[in-house]
Write a structure and sequence with these properties.
Chain B: Residues 3-98 form the Rieske domain. The complex is a heterodimer of chains A (808) and B (100). With 808 residues, chain A is α/β, with parallel strands linked by helices. Chain A contains 28 helices and 38 strands. Chain B is 0% helix and 43% strand. In chain B, strand 2 (17-21) and strand 3 (24-30) form a beta hairpin. Classes of the chains: A alpha/beta (808), B mainly beta (100). Chains A and B meet through helix 19, strand 37 and strand 38 of A and strand 1, strand 2 and strand 5 of B. Strand 38 of chain A pairs antiparallel with strand 1 of chain B, so a sheet runs across the interface.
């Protein structure tokens, strides 16, 4: 008997929680969802894109109708729950439907707050909260010219931007002294206002609305100071209120939101609240990241696997307002007991501020250049001391101040005053001509040609350009022909706008070919998986057949099976088992691979799940852009020359990193002495044992582009090998282009730069943390498929044989 | 003659399915905009299994060597050359029919 789970509210937070529940236990609940809107769950954050007219509802849908169906969820849209009977545990809707529940989740979100002024109910007045509002605004823009947006917060400015885009004249009315006071301090706000006014937005500050007037429909807004403006469309964007009426009527404790504890439980047993309607430790969150965190905690609790409680979130806002990058986090206003460090460049509209309390970094605002936002956010969360900020403001002292001045300069800053050469011009020359010395830079650009005082900075810039920085100046390489955007631009947009699917990325970023191609679809699949470990499920239809079916396709249309044999060490029992399976399925060829494993070749597609089940071994990922194999030599257990236990370390490495998805395939090897029987010198990561330690080599390749690996470092213990390898792999995952082997990547970004990153203790720790997060979300794909009849049906079985029976 | 080859349910969007009718092997595709196409399941290059290719709009990429084939007229796209046989497909009441 499955327990009955009812979700009130079909929005981002609630449905995300359901997704998490399905991941933990597909069979636990019979799930019913009620949504007042007539749509499946869509990405509300992207409503402004819809308003701008280049995106359709379909493009921002997070869960399609099919998704609900596939997961056996009963969905009632356009239907509102009007009553919860907590004694009899049932809900009633406005259509008279009665549904019982064992567990009930409130995810009712927020309602837009409509000012209680005369005329608020006139036709032509709308909120900006859902698809219907969007459609209404698009409709009005076709016939009317003059819009007023009440509310100069983020939502109001997005609405205003959209209306401008639709060709209307827009007044933004704000009650406060400056715009977006919740996310910005006055200085940043003024800069923003200047940008918006450049874009033809008209901003009216310190205006309190007294009434909306009009004959039969809205014609204007009158303020308390007696002034008024004309408007045929008025958008109310003054704030949102948690939607708590139903909870309050049902006898659940409500404050501003529905009061919940650290496991999202309300005051009534078996009733939970998640998302914008919930109030946790006195805070109601409106950003997507905290809401998803809540959903995860609730899913674990409701499935009876209570894990870490939800302890609240430090909120950072990183946004693009009308094309301007804005970031703020923590306590960003100057107040009693705070000091701040500021950088204000009016000419370039760049402003940065870090707020310090008792020597600790507690908040920040960035305007115009938010590249350090992520880093500052981490510092604020950790409560780093102000010492961690170097003088060049925000270049972390961890880099030893090296290149920090160069890094902190803007491209338009002049490096060589005598000859008027900017940083941008120097960097471009370095990138384009592969310049290596100060003299070369001088000959190409004239910088440091006269008084020579800037030689030091030129040298710093050369260093600075050895790493990833160089990509910014080199000719832009787009992901593929479907877009004009580079990998970096796409990744940044994915993170900033929290794009969650391949389709969403393509539609929001204006892909020229909306179906994508062989290059970009698998690439986006990888990037989304890397950015959202455990949250993003790869799209089968965007994967090459090998990765879709977890096998290698062969020339004759059959497939091959390579099980994991850790470190190339097997047992008699394992070999017997493999032999039995090979016989049972008449496998035409059994081949020993170069990676010290066994390949069963010539298998039929529909036999694959059966073979995997009979083998009972994990996938060797011989088909994947992931860790393939860790080749080992015999090592000191038997070898006369072995200095170390290479098989032991190889097995441990393979067990640690197996299933890790990477931009391209990764091969590793461990040898126990410099004779290198495992060929560590031509692997992506090769380890060589020496007396008292291990050498780690990276970026080797034994394939098309033969390349000897570079020595990254020498370490003493196996633990250090695992740690360094892990950090290296994660940095590769995060900064390489999809399908770029480590050999190419190491050459592109430079070994020195990689060392700099990996040897910094703090950076390494952060890389490893992200690596472990990614690893913790992986499961063996063969077993998953063996246990999933639906996927077998979908991907491994043909429709089959049909006798041609003519119809008609 | 018109033959019933399966249900629309059996065709997930943008994932090909193979069906054998008598001695013919067909690849069936349902595109994002819900059109259904049927082509001979053999890439003219090296006989690749087209039903396992990546689908983009009205094209499929052969999984063996990335040849791009138009599902509408069966033509191989430049720079490669060739053609696969196409079959008229239709959907009615959730059933998929192919003209042989």
């Amino acid at each position: 008997m499955r327990r009955k789970l009812v979700l009130i509210g079909n929005g981002m937070a609630g449905v995300r929680c359901i997704e998490e529940i399905l991941k933990l236990d597909r069979e636990a609940f019979e799930i019913t969802i009620f949504g007042s809107e007539p749509h499946p769950n869509y990405n509300r954050i992207l409503l402004s894109e819809v308003l701008q007219g280049d995106t359709r509802l379909d493009d921002i849908t997070l869960n399609s109708w099919e998704w609900y169906e596939r997961n056996g969820i009963r969905l009632f849209v356009g239907e509102t729950v009007t009553e919860v009977d907590i004694k009899r545990r049932l809900v009633r809707t406005d259509r008279g439907r009665v549904v019982e529940y064992d567990e009930l989740i409130f995810a009712t979100g927020s309602n837009p707050f409509i000012l209680p002024v005369p005329g608020a109910d006139l036709p032509g007045v709308t909120a900006f909260r859902d698809i219907q509002d969007c459609e209404r605004m698009i409709e009005y823009a076709k016939t009317y010219k003059k819009a007023a947006v009440i509310g100069g917060g983020l939502l109001g400015l997005e609405a205003a931007r959209g209306l401008l885009h639709l060709g209307m004249d827009v007044d933004v009315i704000h009650i406060f002294d400056y715009l977006m006071e919740r996310q910005l301090d006055p200085t940043a706000s003024k800069l923003l206002q200047r940008e918006l006014e450049k874009q033809e937005m008209n901003v009216l500050l310190r205006k309190e609305t007294a009434e909306l007037f009009g004959n039969g429909r809205v014609e204007g807004v009158r303020f308390k100071d007696g002034t008024s403006i004309a408007a045929d469309l008025v958008v109310m964007a003054v704030g949102i209120r948690p939607n708590v009426d139903l909870a309050r009527r049902s006898g659940i404790e409500v404050n501003r939101g529905i009061v919940v504890n650290d496991y999202l439980e309300t005051s009534v047993p078996h009733i939970y609240a998640v998302g914008e309607c919930a109030e946790h430790r006195g805070v109601v969150y409106g950003l997507v990241a905290p809401l998803y965190e809540q959903g995860k905690v609730l899913a674990e609790a409701i499935c009876g696997r209570k894990g870490k409680p939800y302890e609240g979130s430090v909120v950072a806002t990183q946004l693009k307002v009308s094309g301007v990058d804005v970031f703020s986090a923590g306590e960003f206003m100057d107040g009693e007991g705070t000091e701040s460090i500021k950088l204000y460049d009016e000419a370039r509209s760049v402003y940065k501020k870090v707020v310090v309390r008792q020597g600790k970094i507690v908040g920040a605002v960035l305007f115009g250049d938010t590249s350090e936002g992520r880093k500052l956010f981490d510092m604020i969360q950790r409560g780093d001391s102000v010492e961690a900020l170097s003088l060049s403001l925000f270049a972390p002292a961890a880099l030893g101040g090296k290149g920090s001045l160069a890094a902190a300069m803007a491209d338009t800053d002049v490096v060589c005053g005598c000859n008027g050469v900017t940083k941008g011009a120097i960097c471009q020359a370095i990138a384009e001509h592969g310049l290596k010395t100060v003299a070369e830079v001088r000959d190409y650009t004239n910088a440091s040609r006269s008084c020579g005082r800037c030689k030091g900075i030129v040298a710093e810039l050369l260093e600075h350009m050895l790493g990833e920085e160089a990509n910014r100046y080199a000719a832009k390489e787009t992901i593929c022909g479907c877009t004009d955007l580079s990998r970096e631009e796409v990744l940044e947009a994915i993170e900033q706008r929290r794009l969650m699917t391949v389709k969403e990325v393509m539609s929001v970023l204006g892909w020229k070919n909306e179906e994508g191609c062989l290059k970009c679809r698998p690439a986006l699949n990888y990037y989304l998986g890397m950015l959202y470990p455990g949250e993003y499920d790869e799209e089968a239809e965007s994967l090459f057949v090998n990765e879709r079916l977890h096998t290698n396709i062969q020339a004759d249309g059959t497939y091959s099976v390579v099980p994991r044999i850790y470190g190339g060490v097997t047992t008699a029992e394992q070999l017997r088992n493999i032999a039995d399976v090979a016989e049972k399925y008449n496998v035409p060829m059994i081949k020993i691979t170069g990676g010290q494993r066994i390949d069963l070749l010539g298998v039929k597609k529909e036999d694959l799940p059966r073979i995997w089940a009979d083998l009972g071994m994990p996938s060797g990922y011989a088909y994947a852009k992931a860790l393939r194999t860790v080749k080992t030599c015999v090592g000191k257990q038997f070898c006369r020359f072995g200095t170390q236990d290479s098989t032991g370390l190889g097995i441990r490495m393979e067990q640690t990193f197996e299933r890790l998805k990477t931009p391209h395939k990764v091969k590793m090897a461990v040898s126990a002495c410099p004779r290198n029987c495992a060929e560590s010198g031509i692997k992506d990561v090769g380890v060589v044992g020496v007396e008292g330690g291990w050498e780690i080599y990276v970026g080797g390749n034994g394939g098309t582009h033969l390349r000897a690996a570079d020595l990254l470092c020498t370490v003493k213990t196996e633990d250090e090998v695992i740690e360094m390898t892990g950090a290296f792999l994660q940095y590769y995952r995060e900064s390489a282009h999809y399908l770029e082997r480590t050999s190419k990547w190491v050459e592109r970004v430079g070994l020195e730069h990689i060392r700099e990153v990996l040897f910094d203790v703090e950076t390494r720790r952060a890389l490893l943390e992200r690596l472990h997060k990614a690893l913790s979300t992986t499961t063996d794909p063969w077993r998953d498929i063996v246990e999933n009849e639906r996927v077998q049906q979908l991907l491994f079985r043909d429709i089959g044989d049909k006798e041609p029976v003519p119809v008609e | 003659m018109k033959v019933e080859v399966g249900t629309l349910e059996q065709l997930p969007k943008r994932l090909g399915k193979c069906v054998r009718v008598g001695n013919r092997e067909l690849a069936l595709f349902r595109t994002s905009d819900d059109q259904v196409f049927a082509v001979e399941n053999r890439c003219p290059h090296r006989g690749g299994d087209l039903s396992q290719g990546i689908v983009s709009g009205e094209f499929v990429f052969c999984p063996l060597h990335d040849w791009k084939i138009c599902l509408k007229d069966g033509r191989v796209q430049a720079p490669d050359e060739g053609c696969v046989k196409t079959y008229r497909a239709a959907v009615k009441d959730g059933l998929v029919y192919v003209e042989l």
